[in-house]
Design a protein that fits this description.
CATH topology: Jelly Rolls
Structural class: alpha+beta
InterPro entries: Phytyl_CoA_dOase-like (IPR008775)
Protein name: Phytanoyl-CoA dioxygenase (PhyH)
Strand content: 15-25%
Shape: globular
Number of helices: 5
Helix content: 10-25%
Radius of gyration: 18 Å
Number of domains: 1
Mean pLDDT: 96
CATH architecture: Sandwich
Low-confidence stretches: none
Number of strands: 14
Pfam families: PhyH (PF05721)
Cofactor: Fe(2+)
GO molecular function: 2-oxoglutarate-dependent dioxygenase activity; iron ion binding
């Protein structure tokens, strides 16, 4: 089984890599960047075509079976991370190592160029995730902040890109944000799956009221939302006849360092505390051209 982590360039023709002079078509507008900084997110960014979504879904389908080839390459793999077996949340980290499509999406300029703008610098890979909810009994992703799981890296110069492989809306469990919550302090971890109310014990009354009025992020398949590492977000059940599949790409601004002498991801060699992320498992994805 090939470990695609050893390849730091696209291995298929699923995505075009334009010349440096042609990347401006992927740039966010000044208004979109300003909206991100004010609200903590920006959404509705087209990063995949329908054909690319189809190809990724085809490669995703075998990964739902625990005995698939390459299973030893995952950092984490949960056929159901929900505590309730009747509410299924498939969650896995490391698909970029296993399939060509989930590997090559990391170099997709429709993703890397906006990411560079929002990070204000060169884009380095942190890790990927799959979040999938089956039809009729898809589970919950509880309210959380991404950086609460990433404090083993410093400084907090991270960015998350959430890409829908299906149309997503409130009925099938779309992503939901609490605008402005990226200005809150770092909250303790209260769990990733199952209970949307678990966060209540670590937020103020004012924050709890804001959590009661989130913004649903309705996306067409192939569209993305980018969010700040402190953005409070989650998603509710899928009770429709439609699947809700998503790939998430987590990145850092080049120069972010390890803050631990332990491995940053399961099965990955440790990067000594104080050393910047680099090497096989944390490739540089995009460096903006100098003006």
């Amino acid at each position: 089984m090939t470990d695609f982590a050893t390849r730091h360039e696209p291995v298929s023709d699923l995505f075009d890599l334009p010349a440096a002079s042609d990347v401006d078509k992927y740039r966010l507008t000044e208004e979109q960047v300003a909206f991100f900084h004010e609200n903590g997110y920006v959404s509705g960014i087209r990063v995949l075509t329908d054909a690319q979504c189809d190809a990724l879904c085809e490669q995703l389908q075998p990964l739902f079976q625990p005995e698939h080839p390459g299973r030893e390459l995952w950092y984490e793999y949960h056929t159901n991370e929900s505590p309730d077996p009747t509410q299924v949340l498939f969650h896995a980290l490391g698909a970029w190592r296993i399939t060509s499509g989930f590997h090559d999406i990391l170099w997709n300029p429709a993703f890397t160029v906006p990411a560079s703008q929002l990070l204000d610098g060169a884009v380095r890979f942190w890790h990927d995730q799959l979040f999938c909810k089956p039809s009729r009994h898809g589970g919950v992703v509880a309210w959380h902040q991404d950086y609460s799981y990433w404090t083993r890296t410093v400084p907090m110069a991270h960015l998350t890109c959430w890409i829908g492989l299906d149309d997503t809306d409130e009925a099938n469990g779309c992503l939901q944000y609490v605008p402005g919550s990226h200005k809150w302090t770092l909250l303790p971890i209260t769990g990733l799956a199952g209970d949307m109310n678990a966060i209540r014990k670590v937020v103020s009354d004012e924050q709890w009221e804001a959590l009661k009025k989130p913004t649903p992020i309705v996306l067409q398949r192939g569209e993305a939302a980018f969010h700040h590492p402190l953005m409070v977000h989650g998603s509710r059940e899928n009770r429709t006849d439609r699947q809700r599949r998503a790939v998430v790409i987590n990145t850092v601004r080049d120069g972010v360092q390890s803050d631990s002498d332990e491995p940053l991801l399961e099965g990955v060699p440790a990067i000594p505390k104080g050393e910047p992320l680099s090497g096989t498992f944390f490739p540089l994805l995009y460096e903006p051209r100098q003006p």
